[in-house]
Design a protein that fits this description.
Belongs to the SusD family. Residues 341-628 form the RagB/SusD domain. 38% of the residues lie in helices and 7% in strands. It contains 23 helices and 14 strands. Helix 7 (179-194) runs antiparallel to helix 9 (213-228), helix 9 runs antiparallel to helix 10 (257-275) and helix 16 (484-498) runs antiparallel to helix 17.
Length: 628
């Protein structure tokens, strides 16, 4: 393997199929090929790397977590994409979007993990310590694939053992396991592997992305946070969803101790991450790693915050995916000047709701900030000298785009906004986005423009740029699966839910994330600027604060899609209109009018993926999810 796991790997195990029932774990018929795969250390290591190839790519444009909710919207020509179809309510059991249950889904990855675990002890010339570590990696991946399926489908079929091809499939268990059984299985498997994994990698330059103790512990924290959340903890909506024995698939009694377990796991993961050298990426780190001269603290903070995600393998990224990020950069970057051709698509567009989600400059929601002109947020305002680092001088944009927290300007771009980097690394001479009808960042062609008037600057690495106005030179980065800030906010959430009222422990880790963003503490900010100053002192109030903090800090990384589901808030959010600016208009007054782009509908059935109808036809014992 050369330079990380993203180098092309011979997918030895992907050629094996599982007879009649695709999701089952069956020994492949090609035994000779398997024997060769485990004939020596070199081939066995190739098979190990194959196990990683089943990881769903978080930065893939077809990942519904990126564009399957209310966070991003696309032009009408692009609305047949996998995630966008889900966001529009067009999911179906006949032809499920983003199907990871059937052919070439995660059960194939699980099957390959089982093959590896059953054969690795017989490999000659492999040191015992290597076998131990490799087996631990395979166990964590196997656990993660089970968890990923459970997060999508709810109760799944635990696939733990190899089944001989000679075994009658009628004797193979195809019944879905309960939620309690699935999560217990996943946690036990991770615990079994944790003790055998290294704290850090021996060779970062060649092994980044491989499972370590901090990664395994972080996965466990995510698993237990999900298990403790309302979708899986006492969800009475699924009281009638039962297995063949009449036992509910979902636990019906709320178990508060699940939050205690989640808090313990999150803290253990944080401690392991700290021991391994992980920490929040800060503005000083950007200067140290980039070397770009910046004199303004505002520009420096924006650059540091933007780089917390796109600075390749920075020490905040606990686990990143090494697949290509060129596609998501191509989709997310606006036209920064009048290019000769169109080397960017500019259509990965944050909704107006997301622009309104970010805090005011005082670190509280704009609708709560007593100093913010919330009622007039859609009206125009002209940039003054004090706005020079955020809005082009003397130009007008919506009040909504003024006086916001720094993450707003680090993560989002908008008409008349300042864009530092990407070929304009002099903060005195940045790019300015001109996006009104007929201007260079407006509609290039019907499928290539922002339908909302916003762009996710956070997804575009600062060194990425357009060459000679004709081609985009992207900067490959490790798209985060878990960042340290993610764990900090998990811990704050779990602690808040496990206590009768928030205390200093609850505030500590959310305040670390806020401090990095240049904001005051939760208690101080709400006390000084909110029309609800006691909100952080109550459990319900603090829950809302933590949820909004997560949606801001983790924006555009795929977290919101899963968080809204586990919180059982997706139906609430996805039943509201999707809105943006009237971006085809040339005059500012017309451009800055709010336009409804779509009215989605979301029902209870949409919390879980449908099992493909083809699988339930082949296996009548396989119970379909409610509503499908």
């Amino acid at each position: 393997m050369k330079k990380n796991i993203y180098i092309t790997i011979v997918l030895i195990a992907s050629m094996f199929h599982s007879c009649e029932r695709d999701y089952l774990n069956v020994v492949p018929d090609n035994v000779a090929t398997i024997d060769n795969a485990f004939s020596n250390r070199f081939n066995a290591q190739k098979f190990l790397f194959t196990l990683y190839s089943a990881l769903p790519a978080p930065g893939d444009r077809n990942n519904p977590a990126l564009n399957g909710a209310d966070e991003i919207w696309y032009p009408e020509t692009e609305r047949n994409r996998t995630g966008v179809r889900i966001a529009q309510g067009f999911q179906s059991a006949t032809n499920p979007s983003y199907n990871l249950w059937g052919d070439n889904g995660l059960y194939e990855g699980i099957r390959n993990c089982n093959i590896f675990l059953s054969r690795i002890d017989g490999v000659q010339g492999l040191q015992e310590y290597e076998k131990t570590i490799w087996k631990a990696e395979a166990k964590v991946l196997k656990a993660y694939y089970h968890f990923y399926l459970a997060r999508m489908y709810g109760p799944i079929v635990i696939s733990d053992d190899l089944v001989a091809v000679s075994e009658s499939l009628d004797n193979v268990n195809t019944n879905r396991n309960t939620i309690d059984e699935v999560f217990a299985y996943v946690v036990d498997l991770i615990d079994e592997a944790l003790v055998d994994l290294p704290l850090t990698l021996q060779n970062d330059s060649e092994e980044l992305g491989r499972i370590t103790q901090p990664i395994a512990a972080a996965i466990k924290a995510r698993v237990l946070i999900t298990y403790a959340s309302p979708l899986f903890n006492g969800n009475s909506v699924y009281s009638g969803f039962v297995n063949q024995d009449g036992e509910p698939f979902f636990p019906q009694a709320y178990a508060p101790e699940k939050w205690d377990n989640a808090a313990t796991a999150a803290k253990e993961a944080i401690d392991l991450c700290h021991d391994a050298g992980f920490r929040l990426f800060k503005k000083e780190d950007y200067i140290n790693r980039s070397g770009n001269p910046i004199t303004s603290d505002i520009t420096l903070l924006k650059a540091g915050l933007r780089s917390r995600m796109t600075e390749k393998w920075n020490f905040e990224i606990v686990w990143g995916h090494t697949g290509s990020t060129s596609g998501i950069e191509y989709e997310s970057m606006p036209r920064l000047y009048n290019y000769l051709t169109n080397p960017v698509a500019s259509r990965h567009a944050p909704t107006l709701r997301i622009a309104e989600m970010y805090y005011s400059k005082n670190g509280v929601p704009i609708e709560e900030d007593v100093t913010y002109d919330y009622a007039n947020r859609y009206r125009l305002r002209t940039s003054a000298p004090e706005d020079q680092y955020h809005v082009e001088q003397g130009q007008s944009t919506a009040i909504l785009n003024f006086d916001r927290e720094t993450r707003f300007y680090a993560d989002l771009a908008f008409d008349r906004g300042v864009w530092y980097g990407n070929g304009a690394n002099d903060e005195a001479n940045p790019w300015f986005i001109h996006a009104r009808g007929g201007e260079f960042a407006s509609v290039f062609e019907i499928s290539q423009y922002s339908v909302t008037g916003y762009w996710p600057k956070k997804l575009v690495a600062i060194p990425t740029q357009v060459n000679n106005g004709t081609s985009l030179s992207t900067t490959r980065y490790a798209f985060p699966i878990i960042r340290l800030a993610d764990l900090y906010l998990y811990y704050a959430e779990a602690l808040n839910e496990s206590k009768s009222a928030p205390d200093a422990q609850v505030y500590e880790y959310i305040d670390l994330v806020r401090e990095r963003a240049g904001l005051g503490t939760v208690v101080d900010s709400w006390s000084a600027f909110s029309n609800n100053p006691t909100k952080p002192t109550t459990k319900n109030g603090m829950r809302e604060i933590i949820q909004q903090e997560r949606m801001i800090e983790m924006a555009f990384e795929g977290a919101r899609f899963w968080d809204l589901r586990r919180w059982k808030l997706a139906k609430e959010y996805m039943s509201k209109p999707i809105k943006g600016w009237n971006v085809l208009e040339a005059e500012a007054d017309d451009y800055y009018t709010v336009r409804t782009l779509y009215n989605p509908s979301y029902s209870e059935k949409d919390y879980l993926w449908p099992i493909p109808e083809s699988e339930t036809i082949k296996d009548p014992d396989l119970i379909q999810n409610p509503g499908w």
